[in-house]
Amino acid sequence: MQYTFRKAEIPDADSIWKLLQQAIIRRKNDGSNQWQDGYPNLNVVKNDIEKGYGFVLVEEETIIGYVAVMINNEPAYEAIEGKWLTNDDFVVIHRVAIDENYLGKGLAKKIMNYVEDFALQNKIYSIKADTNFDNFAMMKIFENLNYTLCGEVFFRGAPRKAYEKVLK
């Protein structure tokens, strides 16, 4: 399959929100507390797009994946219980979601690889991310992509596992 990874645009917001709604239901069905409190929502998606953080994975004309990507912009990461591998510039990943019709095809990993390329293009050699303690699917992706568990951060009042990958 041929995929495109690009910045999200305002007309993409409803399609992205549908992906996130699917992911919210999946998290709930997996017994996770992640994303069960009204976050993320359509306003978060629109804000991501307006600030240039939103990116989509597209197959032909269909949006099949989403991620928010920020540079040096996660205040919660300043107060880690543990230790980051680096203290230089970093890319932050939030809100990874894949269309339920495309699960099991390695597309979350593909998104993560595109984010690595984005970081390198911006001469940034660190990617930081966090996830809920009960998001086993995302933890497995981090593990498979050689992310290091660095400790805990508190995001929106709850502890989360904090990961970093140093790019060569």
TrEMBL record:
The keyword Transferase applies. Coiled coil: none annotated. InterPro entries: Acyl_CoA_acyltransferase (IPR016181), GNAT_dom (IPR000182). SUPFAM superfamilies: Acyl-CoA N-acyltransferases (Nat). It comes from the Bacteria. Residues 3-168 form the N-acetyltransferase domain. Keywords: Transferase. It holds the Pfam family Acetyltransf_1. GO terms for molecular function: acyltransferase activity, transferring groups other than amino-acyl groups. This is GCN5 family acetyltransferase. It comes from Flavobacterium seoulense.
